[in-house]
Specification:
By secondary structure, chain A is an alpha+beta fold. Helices cover 30% and strands 24% of the residues of chain A. Helix content of chain B is 32%, strand content 26%. The chains are: A alpha+beta, B alpha/beta.
Chain lengths: 402, 465
């Protein structure tokens, strides 16, 4: 039987084959994980639907497979030559399954709006024209589109590894794969398609430091480690409610801004493989201890690569916290399709003017990157001020956190 | 033993073109032909039929031309001279094919090929057996006429199109079984040469699959000249009585008997795959026996390719030729693929029918919101002044944006008009693009421009609908 890449979740149309967990000739059992696929959200291990023998693997590690594409052929004794043997091994350009071509003479390539010469150019440059975004009228794919789509591929081939006289490599070529590639694509897309501005402000968190100290004990009794993050998340809720455009997304096609009445906060988490963003859901309905517990659980899952699709979906606003590492402030990149991201930075003792006197107090910088298409600078500044007001005023904050 | 990089079985429009391209690309190429280079198309199909059709049209024109003021008496067709002229055209073209193959240093071997293994075949030539080893094999064996049970060809009374083109006179009563492209071409042709024609078609329309609006024009003209068209009908049996046959037909209106001195059966074709040992090689075929390939013309067996009719419908010479080029280029390691949007087709009945791209019905089926327009040749100066006012151009476009999805033409020179449309669709043109292109006046292609103007919402020579 042909094993097609299954539907991996809402909105996911393709995934990169990260790692085959089986090889040709292996006997496999039903439900045995056979392949690890990286989607634009998380890694997924896909189980086998049947027991049988792996007769052919049709997609190489590092290649992107579309949902519904045959990626593996399992000989399950169902008789007949496996259909996928019809996929003759392509020498250069990817070939379609013969059976598919026979049944549908209007192949997907021919449904792309592009001239015959452009289609030929795509084949020559090894570009899958069906994946190229056409910049011309009615989505027409032009020669330039093909050339720019081929550039990364050409570069990878063209890299000559410079060597020293002794044969020692001066450079090491690391293929852009998996999570790194996903991050790369998403960051560029975010910067290219939005109008990002970063607003930076300062907060006096002396009282927050004391409050956290005071609550640490009761958190421990509940078996959770209390960081500053749950406090900030709780302080965010009234600010997001008062400034709904910060908790929104832009539906460009429909020309609508979608204001969200639920508060799911993405927490950017550093892992060995790279950045992932698990989501803490409905933060407005949870107290800080619940939040702290969930954050601990999610970051553990992130570190061990166990996040499910549900864990990374549905954020309405994201926080990135680099305070533990250092630095003054940064300009975070918005996590699409959200319209704003909050950067939390190092809390340090600094000399400040407090009640007319120079005092040593705990302060931190907050950076808010926002999409200027959706809101203006004044709006973002007012939002940030409102957030800082809650953070600084522990009476207000206490009302929120518990 | 002859050693080849590429062995091509079949020297028809698919195989010989594949041979030329393959040799041009520096591959040691052998083309094996069991009969004549040029295949069915050059020898028994497209080319000879067009020669006869030309003459039939001329005769007909001369008769009709009295109303244009042309007086000619004693016009008759000399079939001996006509057949000679036809044969000369065919030999000239076949000779040209052989010259091209040899000129590019491809080897041509005449004889029936038998594939022995994945790298070897044998040819039974007139000088004995010749062995050929190959690295890549291209199957270009085409199709052959299928017979109907009870209506087996006898080469005299019950004939195929091949014999039909070699007749030395027009039959008095011609029964054509099968109202597809071949059947209609013969119907129009022999009607003009003096035959009384009956067409028996099992489906509910002539040219099944073609836009019914288009077919109506052709059927009307056939019937106006006295043809009897029996749709949803089939031949029950045939009784041969000397030089005549009584054909019993079941029609929706009951049984009928038609006397005929020729019964031409054109009910389709089937793949020619004997001697290829496809099963032993493991080459997959579909349930009808056509070889399955991908868009690079590769079968499931590495190193074995298939092109042309043997891959299945549409059975068209020009499609086979393009596929031959794709196969040769893929074998030479070039990134070639069959990724065209349209395979235009043309039927040389009267009036001619040609189409490229989606019909209105197919476009709707494909989920397009369709905008359609027509322009009648009766409103076009050149068609009237050529004495050919029948038919129209029909444009099918996407409502949103006006992308040309398909064009169907019934009318004068439809076969010559369709290429403009094929180019337009391949280039992704909109009806506005065609409408904005100046077409010389007075010419037939203006009808395509006028129909496109109409589809774009600004017709000139017809009233807005």
């Amino acid at each position: 039987m042909d094993f097609k890449l299954p539907d991996l979740g809402e909105g996911i149309t393709e995934g990169e084959v990260l790692k085959w967990l089986v090889k040709e000739g292996d006997q496999i059992k039903e439900d045995q994980p056979i392949v690890e696929v990286m989607t634009d959200k998380v890694n997924v291990q896909v189980p086998s639907p049947r027991s049988g023998k792996v007769s052919r693997i049709l997609v190489k590690e590092g290649d992107v497979a579309k949902v519904g594409q045959t990626i593996l052929v399992i000989d399950d004794g169902s008789g007949g030559a496996p259909l996928a043997t019809l996929v003759a091994p392509p020498e250069k350009a990817p070939a379609k399954g013969a059976a598919e071509v026979q049944q549908a003479p209007q192949s997907s390539v021919s449904s792309v709006l592009a001239t015959p010469a452009t289609r030929k150019l795509a084949r020559e440059l090894g570009v899958d024209i069906t994946k190229v975004h056409g910049s011309g009228p009615q989505g027409r794919v032009t020669d330039d589109d093909i050339k720019s789509a081929s550039r990364p591929a050409l570069k990878a081939v063209a890299i000559q590894e410079p060597r020293l006289a002794g044969g020692v490599q001066k450079e090491e070529v690391v293929p852009l794969r998996g999570l790194r590639r996903t991050i790369s694509d998403r960051m560029v897309k975010s910067l290219r398609t939005t109008a990002q501005v970063t607003h930076v402000d300062e907060a006096d968190v002396t009282e927050l430091v004391l409050l956290r100290e005071a609550l640490k004990g009761s958190a421990e009794k509940r078996g959770v480690r209390l960081t500053y993050l749950p406090f900030i998340i709780k302080a965010l809720v009234p600010a997001l409610k008062e400034f709904p455009y910060v908790n929104s997304s832009l539906d460009e096609q429909a020309g609508n801004i979608v204001l969200k009445k639920y508060y799911n906060i993405g927490v950017a988490t550093d892992t060995e493989q790279g950045l992932v963003v698990p989501v803490v859901k409905d933060v407005d309905r949870k107290d800080i201890f619940e939040l702290a517990g969930e954050i601990t659980k999610l970051s553990e899952k992130a570190r061990t690569g166990q996040l499910s699709l549900d864990d990374v979906r549905g954020a309405t606003f994201t926080i990135t916290n680099v305070g533990a590492i250092g630095g003054l402030f940064a300009t975070p990149i918005i996590n699409l399709p959200e319209v704003a991201i909050l950067g939390l930075h190092k809390i340090a003792k600094r000399p400040v003017i407090h009640d007319g006197k120079i005092e040593v107090r705990d302060t931190t910088f907050l950076s808010l990157s926002f999409d200027h298409r959706v809101m203006d600078g004044a709006y973002a500044a007012r939002f940030t001020s409102r957030l800082i007001e809650t953070i600084q005023d522990t009476k207000k904050l206490l009302a929120e956190v518990l | 033993m002859l050693e080849a990089d590429v062995a091509i079985i079949g020297g028809g429009p698919g195989g010989y073109v594949c041979g030329i391209r393959s040799a041009q690309l520096g591959l040691r190429t052998v083309v094996i032909e069991a009969d004549k280079l040029g295949g069915e198309c050059l020898n028994y199909g497209c080319i000879p039929s067009k020669s006869l059709i030309t003459v039939s049209k001329l005769v007909d024109k001369v008769k009709e031309a009295e109303s244009f003021g042309l007086k000619a008496t004693g016009v008759s067709v000399d079939f001996v001279q006509l057949q000679k002229w036809k044969s000369e055209i065919v030999s000239k073209l076949v000779g040209g094919v052989e010259g091209l193959l040899r000129g590019y240093h491809a080897t041509v071997v005449f004889g029936m090929a038998t594939v022995v293994s994945k790298d070897r075949l044998e040819v039974a030539t007139s000088q004995g057996k010749e062995e050929i080893s190959f690295k890549k094999l291209v199957i270009a064996t085409g199709t052959r006429t299928s017979a109907l049970p009870g209506l087996e060809f006898d080469g005299d009374l019950v004939i195929s199109s091949k014999e039909g083109l070699e007749l030395m006179g027009a039959p008095n009563q011609l029964v054509i079984v099968g109202g597809g492209a071949i059947g209609l071409e013969f119907a129009s042709m022999f009607q003009k040469l003096g035959s009384r024609v009956s067409i028996i078609e099992i489906m509910d329309q002539l040219l099944p699959g073609t836009d019914p609006e288009i077919v109506r024009v052709v059927q009307r003209k056939l019937e106006a000249r006295g043809a009897k068209v029996h749709l949803k009908s089939k031949v029950i049996h045939i009784v041969k009585k000397g030089s005549e046959a009584e054909v019993e037909v079941e029609t929706p209106g009951g049984r009928a008997t038609i006397t005929a001195d020729k019964v031409l059966v054109s009910v389709g074709r089937k793949p020619r795959t004997e001697n290829l040992n496809l099963a032993a090689l493991g080459v997959r075929t579909d349930p009808r026996g056509y070889v399955i390939t991908n868009e690079r013309m590769e079968t499931n067996v590495p190193g074995i390719f298939a092109i042309g009719d043997v891959r299945g419908p549409p059975l068209l010479a020009h499609k086979a030729s393009k596929e031959g080029i794709v196969a040769a280029e893929c074998i030479a390691g070039l990134p070639s693929a069959a990724d065209w949007k349209v395979v235009p087709d043309a039927v040389f009945c009267d009036p001619e029918v040609a189409s490229a791209g989606l019909s209105e019905a197919k476009a709707i089926e494909g989920g397009y919101k369709v905008k359609r327009s027509r322009f009648q040749f009766a409103a076009l100066g050149r068609a009237l002044s050529a004495g050919e006012p029948e038919g129209f151009v029909k444009v099918v476009a996407n409502e949103d944006g006006g992308l040309v999805l398909g064009v169907q033409i019934v009318g004068p020179e439809a076969s010559n008009l369709i290429s403009e449309v094929a180019l337009a669709i391949e280039m992704g043109a909109t009806v506005e693009d065609i409408a904005m292109t100046i077409h010389p006046h007075p010419t037939l292609p203006e009808a395509i421009m006028e129909a496109s103007e109409s589809a774009a919402g600004h017709p000139v020579h017809q009233l807005r609908t």
